[in-house]
Design brief:
alpha+beta, six-stranded mixed sheet, 3 domains, globular, endopeptidase fold (from Nostoc punctiforme), 18% helix, six-stranded antiparallel sheet, Immunoglobulin-like, 8 helices
């Protein structure tokens, strides 16, 4: 039985008509039931319920708050590996103005359960979607089978399937490749590769496909893909490894960038190159500051952002301050002096500079090395100026500096 709210009303003299109405309105407010939190509904669907090693998936759906679209709401993709009782958050997103979300994710080689959780707000409670099991499978994957799996994500086929000749295959940069077929679609390209006796088909997203084609196709600069692109929600970016280069595309640039190499080092550098020319809109309010959630000097934050955007967040610690980054780098990465006889910096190595004459033994800036030659180090630097002298106009630029200004180098675990 509910509690009865008793409101004593003592009238010393009769109320006028207007005053009586006000009193009744106040009484109605006191007796009105508390407003209930808006009901949240969430839909959830993976792009496929089974996958092979290194195939990417997209988890999509929508959120409703009452009868309206749940716009700008935080959602989390949660994963529970087969045989485990523990759920963990593997990706996060924010819904669009229409309440929709699309989360790219490349699963590890295990069957797992997935769901989406809508984060609670001041007016809504936590809401979870239905649970979906996505199975890890093995075996060949033909171009036709992959096209069926991806469906509308490919767009419309633009031409017939092309098979490389034996002579053309020799130019892809991988002697273990015995067959290559590919087909173009409006949203990208499918490339079927038989490598080491195993047939797999990889999806190349549109901007990376366009750069691949403009540089001569799979027989020239890029070679053939080794896996699907790994996509993140940072700038809607995707990194993809080919037999000769690593390529990167994002919503921030019309043109995909690439870096020669077949390791995470190349992926990191491809992302770093894509940022050259970015200009900070206002002091300490770069997109990298927004990402880390702090408005401090951001040369170190930039390097952490590059690692995360490349799909390799473990390469560089994520810290809000430069001092915090330096401390973590010295604990977690291999560091060495420019005079080291056992280590040599190369493209991808982090160079920590000491520019402050009052503190010559304290790092004050960092860049990622492109080359070291003739006593000079060429690097991509965040929170730097266009010229050699630092000004209040900051961005991401390439600089050539004296090796004597390098306090120490740091090598991520590539």
């Amino acid at each position: 039985m509910g509690t009865v709210l008793r409101v004593p009303v003592v009238l010393r003299r009769p109320l006028s008509g207007g005053a009586a109405l006000v009193a009744l309105a106040m009484l109605a407010v006191l007796l009105a039931p508390a407003a209930q939190a808006a009901t949240v509904k969430v839909t959830f669907k993976p792009s496929a319920t089974s996958f092979r090693w290194s195939e990417s998936l997209w988890f999509t759906g929508s959120v409703k708050k009452g009868t309206k679209a749940g716009k700008a709401m935080k959602v989390e993709l949660r994963r529970q590996p087969s045989g485990s009782s523990t759920w963990s958050t593997v990706a996060r997103a924010t819904t669009t103005s229409s309440g929709g979300y699309s989360i790219p994710y490349t699963p590890s080689a295990h069957t797992a359960k997935y769901l989406v959780r809508v984060v609670a707000t001041s007016s809504t409670a936590v809401k979870r979607s239905t649970v979906v099991t996505v199975k890890y499978t093995v075996g060949d994957r033909t171009l036709e089978a992959r096209a069926k799996q991806l469906g509308s994500r490919l767009g419309t086929a633009q031409a017939k399937t092309v098979r490389l000749s034996a002579t053309a295959r020799k130019a892809v940069g991988d002697t273990s490749v015995t067959s290559v077929r590919y087909r173009n679609y409006t949203k990208g390209m499918l490339v079927e590769v038989v490598r080491g006796g195993k047939m797999r088909t990889w999806f190349v997203p549109a901007k990376i496909r366009d750069r691949l084609v403009s540089t001569g196709g799979v027989r020239k600069t890029f070679g053939v893909p080794r896996k699907d692109a790994v996509c993140t929600l940072i700038d809607s970016g995707c990194t993809q490894q080919f037999s000769k280069v690593a390529a990167y595309q994002s919503s921030a640039s019309k043109l995909a960038r690439y870096q020669a190499g077949t390791t995470r080092r190349a992926q990191y550098l491809a992302v770093a190159r894509s940022q050259v020319g970015y200009a900070e809109p206002s002091w300490r309010h770069s997109k990298y500051n927004t990402w880390v959630g702090a408005h401090n000097a951001w040369c170190g934050v930039f390097q952490s952002w590059v690692a995360a955007a490349s799909g390799n967040p473990d390469l560089v610690p994520k810290r809000t301050t430069f001092a915090g980054l330096v401390s973590s780098v010295k604990k977690e990465l291999v560091t060495y002096k420019p005079s080291s006889k056992t280590h040599r910096p190369r493209a991808g190595t982090l160079a920590f500079f000491a520019f402050k004459t009052a503190h010559p033994n304290t790092a004050s800036h960092v860049g990622v090395v492109l080359s070291v030659s003739g006593g000079k180090v060429r690097a991509i630097e965040g929170n730097s100026s266009k010229g050699s002298v630092f000004t209040d106009d900051r961005g991401v630029y390439i600089h050539t500096r004296s090796v004597s200004s390098v306090l120490f180098y740091a090598e991520p675990d590539w």
